[in-house]
Amino acid sequence: MLAKGRIRPSFFLVFGREVGHFRRKPFLIILSTILPLILMGVLAVVFSAGLATRLPIAVLDLDGTDLSRTIIRTVDATPDTAVAANVSDLTEGRHLILSGKVHGLLMLPRNLERDVFAGRRPEVVFFYSTQTLTTGNLTLRGVSAAVPSVAAGIRISLRTAEGQPVDAAQEALTPIPVQVNPLFNPTLNYAHFLLAALMPAVLQIVVVVTMAYSVGSDAETQHRLRILRRLGGGLWPAMFGKILPYTVLFLLVLGVSDIALFGYFGMPMRGHRGLLVAGAILFILANQMVGTLLALLLRPVATAVSISTLLFAPAFGFMGIGFPRLGMNAFAYWWGELLPGTWYLTVRIDQTLRGTPFDLSVKPLAALLFLALLFGTLTAWRLEVIRARNDRRQRAAMPAEATP
Q1: pLDDT digits (tens, 9 = 90+) for 258-313
Q2: Is residue 224 part of a domain?
C-alpha cells in the first residue's frame, strides 16, 4: 500500500515536470506540435485542389486539317490536359518538356486526315515524361481518352454514310463492351488518399525523433537518469509520466489534421470511427516506444536522434502507398511490416475510403497492438537492464562495513 501511495504522486510529479519543460524548452513544443502542424499545413496547401487537372501539354500539328484541329480541341477539352503551346518542330517541344513548362507533346503527322478517310491507320504520337509518374500518367490518360473518341466518331460516321444504322455501327466498333467500376476513390482525389497518408507519415517521424530527443536528454547521463528515477519513485512510473504528455500532444496534432481532412477536404468516413481512434492511439504509442527504445540504447542523444531520422525519414516508401508492397523485395516488404505507419495507414484507408467490415479491420489493429507491445517490451527490458546496472554501481560505491 505504501508503494502504491508513493507511485501516484511521483508519477504526477514527473508528468508536471515534463509539462514544465515545454515552457523552459520551447524547442520541445516546436518539435512536437508546431513543426508537424506547419508541415501538415504545407501539404494541405499543396494538395488543396484534390485532383490534378488541366495539365499543360504542347502540340505539333503537321497536318493542319479539320481533323487535326478537332483532335486538338478534344484533347484540350478533357479534364486532364490543356493545350498550352503550339510548336513548330520536335526540338522546340523537347525543350518545353525539359524546362517543365509542359508535361507532354502531341504530334499529329502529315496527311493524317487523308490517311484516315482512305482507311489507313496513321499514328498519332504522344511524348511524355515518365520521370514524373503522376503528371505523365495523367496527361497520357487524357490524350488516350480523347484521340480514340475522335477516331471512333469518324469510324461511326463512315459506317453510317454507307447506310449502316448508328446502333449497328457502334456495336461493330465495340463487340465486347467493358464495364468499368472504380472503387473506393473513384475521383482520384489526392486529398482523400495521398494527403491522408502523408500526414501520419510526417507525424511518425516527428513522434520518433521527439521521443528520442526527450528521453535521451534524461537517459544520456547517469546523473539525469538518477534524478528522473528519484522523482518518479522508480524508472517505470517516471518513464510513464515522461511519455504521457507527448502522447496527448501527438493525438491532438493528429486530431487537428483529421478535422481538416474530414471537415475542409470532405474525406468520407465509411467505416467505424472507434476503430480509427483506436488505431491512432496504438500508432502513437508504438512510435513512442520506438523512440524511447532508441534513446535508451544509443548514446549520446544526438546519435539517437540521427538514427531515428535515418530509419523513419524514408519510411513512407515502404508503406505501400506510392508503390505496392507485394511488388517489393523481401527486405522492403518485411521492413514495412515493422513500421507502425504501415498498419495505421491500412486502418485509415479501411475506415475512410473502403468502409471495410469490422471483422476484416481487426488484422491491422492487431498488428499495431503487437508492435506497441513488442517495442514496449523491449523498452521495459532495457529499463530493467539500466536499473539493475545502476543498482550494482550504487552497491559497489557504498563503503564496506568496518570490521570489529
Answers
A1: 999 999 888 889 989 999 999 999 999 999 999 999 999 998 899 999 999 999 99
A2: yes
All three cell numbers of 1: 500500500
Tell me: do 39 and 83 sit in the same domain.
Answer: no
* 62 & 43 share domain: no
Distance CA 368, CA 373 (A): 9
Total domain count for the chain?
2
**C-alpha 355: how far from chain center:** 19
CA distance 257 to 277: 13
Enclosing H/E stretch for 82: strand 81-86
Whether 399 is in a domain gets the answer no
Same domain, 30 and 60: no
pLDDT tens, residue by residue, 225-244: 666 666 656 777 778 888 99
pTM above 0.85, yes or no: no
Q: Are 126 and 106 in contact (CB under 8 A)?
A: yes
Domain check: are 31 and 96 in the same one? no
Structural domain includes residue 181? no
- β-pairing, 104-108 with 125-128? antiparallel
Residue 158 pLDDT greater than 90, yes or no: no
Of 205, 212, 382, nearest in space to 301 by CA: 212
Q: Within this chain, do residues 237 and 143 fall inside the same structural domain, yes or no?
A: no
Within this chain, do residues 120 and 225 fall inside the same structural domain, yes or no? Answer: no
| 112: CB partners within 8 A, 6+ apart | 62, 63, 65, 67, 68, 122, 124
**Cα separations (Å) of 404 from 399, 400, 401?**
15, 12, 9
Are 346 and 368 in contact by the 8 Å Cβ rule? The answer is no
Q: Do the beta carbons of residue 319 and residue 336 sit within 8 Å?
A: yes
Strands 81-86 and 55-61: parallel
Question: For residue 110, is it within any domain?
Answer: yes
Is 164 found in the same domain as 97? yes
Which DSSP helix (H) or strand (E) runs through 108?
Answer: strand 104-108
And the C-alpha cell for 45? 496547401
Give the range of the structural domain holding residue 41, as residue numbers without chain letter: 2-47+189-391
Helix (H) or strand (E) segment spanning residue 141:
helix 133-161
> Dihedral of the CA atoms 255, 258, 263, 269 (nearest 10)?
-120
Cβ atoms of residues 296 and 379 within 8 Å: yes
Q: What pairs with residue 60 in β-bridges?
A: 107
Q: Are residues 110 and 28 in the same domain?
A: no
User: Taking a C-beta distance cutoff of 8 angstroms, is the pair 386, 296 a contact?
Assistant: yes
